[in-house]
Amino acid sequence: MSLQNASGIERNAHHTESYARHPGLNLGAAHAQEEDTREEMVFGFWVFMMSDLIIFGLLFATYVTMLGGTAGGPGPKELFEMKSAFIETMLLLTSSFTFGMASLALKYREDKSRLVFWLVVTLLLGVGFLFFELKDFHTMFDKGGVPSRSGYLSAFFSLVPLHGLHVTGACIWLVALLGQMAVHGLDAPVKTGILRLAILWHFLDIVWIGIFSLVYLGGLS
Amino acid sequence: MSDVTSSIFGRLGWDALPFWSMLRDHSAMTIINGVIATGAAGMVVLGALAAIVLVTWLGKWKYLWSEWFTSPDHKKIGIMFIVIALVMLARAIIEAVFMRAQQAVGLDGGFLTAEHFGQLFTTHGTIMVFFMAMPFLTGIINYVMPLQIGARDLSFPVLNQVSLGLTAAGAALVMISLVLAPFSIGGWTGYPPFTELSYNPGAGVDYWIWAVTLSTLSSTLTGINFAVTIFKKRAPGMKLFRMPLFTWTALCTAILMIFGMPPLTVATGLLALDRYLDFHMFTTDLGGNMMNYVNLFWAFGHPEVYILILPPFGIFSEVFATFSGKRIYGYRILVVATMCIAVLSFTVWLHHFFTMGQSAHINAAFGIATMLIGIPTGVKVYDWMLTMYRGRIRLSVPMVYAIGFIMLFVLGGMTGVILATPSVDYQVHNSLFLVAHFHNMLIPGLLFGMLSATNFWFPKAFGFRLEERWGYRAAFCWIIGFMLAFFPLYVLGLMGMPRRSVAFLEPQYLPWTITAGLGALVILCALLCLLIQLWVSVRDRHANNVFAGDPWDGRSLEWSVSSPPPEYNFPVLPEIYSIDAFMTEKDRGQGWQAPDQYVDIEMPANSAMGVIMAVTGLAMAFGLVWHMWWLVIGAGLATLVAIIARGFVRHTKRTISAMEVQRTHEHWLEQVRRTTPIKRSQEQSTANHGLPVAPIEGAVQ
């Protein structure tokens, strides 16, 4: 009996200290109910990311099994350009850093202009990445590297552009968040929105590191 | 001119109408098949029209819109999921009867063309898995799980609407395919290269791809929603090891959905790329690799069968405990067994293609992994039996399903161990033996579980009991019909009859196919009994009302509130101190209490997101099937705009005032005080108004 009651008390104690549960987010004055709701949103997004990671994992695996399926068409060595892939990597890594700066601005300063500045820089870097990626695909197309040429190229074009589509989605989301900020100010939904977008952004960075190492470095080695 | 029509209608032409080929070609075979297809299409059109006319005549559009379609209430969404499941169940059973009828007269011919038969088994499988089983179990979990953990709603109520909308869109697409034919003939697994463009250029496979993709997206989102809800929204004191077993199985199912659904999204997505953009992922030429599809599909497909079977395991655990009047035997062991099954389900997918050329070592490893699943499942069966042992068992309708399940499921499990032996699998591969095994697991497992749950929780959802006599008739028809329809298939499989064959040449198959055909008719009777049961129950709803909320002397929290429960479920979130939380309360004489104080309750506000996603999802899928690109782009943009606009909405809550909560709750408590408690033996009489005699009053049950 006493033990069971104790657990109830323990839970209450847990509630009062809930402001400490989410170190990455500054929601102003501690408010247990609000914290719980926001925590659920962010946790839910993490779970969604795990599900999304399965998709990328399977596409990576499929890509590896189809490395040999070039059917006499061009392979990685004929198609990839290290320089361009490196620029893309740098752009994306930097964008992850600038998003980190945006997160710090969100957490430590109630200074909207600094936050907006870093978010816009992130957006530009993301768009820059997309520009170079599209340019890359264009060069590949010119060299005859179209998805319908071979199983290998199909696998490439089902994996890499999907990452690009994710980046596109993330950029649209970023613009939408800037719009929300303009309309509603820096309220809790905008803050959790930024927090969740940050998770997606860093996640896409990690997936790109996988693509760069496995597809580009692996292909050119 | 034809350019204009083709840019509007894509490749949709008059020949999509099911009676078109019949008008062109007057042979007996085309006329019979055309009449059947037209009849089916007519039923869809008339059914839809009848529904629209009825709702308009009753003037209920506004009510449907504001109380149901835009409601974020998990209970209503759950019920709508189940309605979809029941409609699709009826269709898929009728298709099954046609297939069995065809095979009963299939010696040297029969009445169906191979094409028509192919569409029948493809839609039957697709519907039963994606549009009957998945919505049914999603609906039941949606309804029951938040009540069991003492929550007010799911974590993401609007996402829940979207899940419902996507499933509804997928189901609608399959229904549309009856009117604007054809559907795929590639089986529910849709293996390439048969489903590739070069072998199947029509709209059929595309219908299948997009219907399944919609359903898969829906299930992924549902899984996330359920898992987050169970992890984050349990009432104070409800530790993981105090959760009811149904919630435990819901959690494991949700995790399986999160990780098991994406492989199918990948598989159907890549197949679509092959068909639409001339990719070569799974083609036979230019370096395509169709084994990748098979691996991807079963990386989903095997966890899927455990997504289907785990919730019924939870349901039966509740049913056995409740109707034996005992605490469940081996609670912790049952939880561990559930988790073992969930993990093992990811390790066995390759047993679906033992014969496709991998090495014997790999086959052996996967065969052993498969057989291992028998261990935790066996543990569960013994736990259920020991729960019944020395219990005061009431053979209610849910119990009849549960006992039928235990016996038949063990049989099916044993044939599963046989199939898990690669050398045996080589002999019976692609024969009806496999069909028999598969249905032996899924009908007693999934479907009996769902029907048991329906009989068990129906009074909770609607406030009156389901009529028992027709319930028993349905249950026995299901059990007997199942045995008649599927046991002969084991024999046929061992005799070498391949599955999915429209006709055969061996006269010795005939007695068995006829028996199976009779079994299908008995199952049709079961469906009729279910409908009559529903009708009779609604007719007598006042006599059978159980507003007090606890008609079966229940054990978990959902029975502690009124039937039907208020929108906010609990006036105050309960504190939990043990498993079987409500039974503990009743044992201490602490059930049916008023809280010390009432507070305002915040609930999610209505939203049209689910409906919007259903409409745009359906439009996009339909456009893709028929190559109407304007529709695809338009619907895609509408989806994007809706999602972005939703982000700008800030009034997502509405408040239910403390006064209203108090009024509802005290009205209910007043009714409970006026209700005469009953003994368990009176459960099925009209004396049962949802209040059992409390154990503390020394009742002899």
Automatic annotation (TrEMBL), chain A:
Main location: membrane
UniProt GO cellular component terms: plasma membrane
Location of the Heme-copper oxidase subunit III family profile domain: 41-220
Gene Ontology MF terms in the entry: cytochrome-c oxidase activity
Transmembrane segment boundaries: 43-65, 85-106, 115-132, 152-178, 199-219
Keyword line: Cell membrane, Membrane, Transmembrane, Transmembrane helix
Pfam families: COX3
Entries under SUPFAM superfamilies matching the protein: Cytochrome c oxidase subunit III-like
One Gene Ontology biological process: aerobic electron transport chain
Gene3D superfamilies for the chain: Cytochrome c oxidase, subunit III, four-helix bundle
Keyword Repeat: no
Subcellular location: Cell membrane
Stretches assigned to coiled coil: none
Classification via InterPro entries: Cyt_c/ubiquinol_Oxase_su3, Cyt_c_oxidase-like_su3, Cyt_c_oxidase_su3-like_sf, Cyt_c_oxidase_su3_a-hlx
Membrane topology reported for the UniProt record: Multi-pass membrane protein
Function: Cytochrome bo(3) ubiquinol terminal oxidase is the component of the aerobic respiratory chain of E.coli that predominates when cells are grown at high aeration. Has proton pump activity across the membrane in addition to electron transfer, pumping 2 protons/electron.
Record family assignment: Belongs to the cytochrome c oxidase subunit 3 family.
Subunit structure: Heterooctamer of two A chains, two B chains, two C chains and two D chains.
Protein name, entry field: Cytochrome bo(3) ubiquinol oxidase subunit 3
Protein source organism: Kushneria konosiri
UniProtKB/TrEMBL annotation, chain B:
Classification lineage: Bacteria, Pseudomonadati, Pseudomonadota, Gammaproteobacteria, Oceanospirillales
Protein name: Cytochrome ubiquinol oxidase subunit I
Keywords of this entry: Cell membrane, Copper, Electron transport, Heme, Iron, Membrane, Metal-binding, Respiratory chain, Transmembrane, Transmembrane helix, Transport
Keyword Calcium attached: no
Primary residence: membrane
Subcellular location as annotated: Cell membrane
Protein family: Belongs to the heme-copper respiratory oxidase family.
One MF term in the entry's GO annotations: heme binding
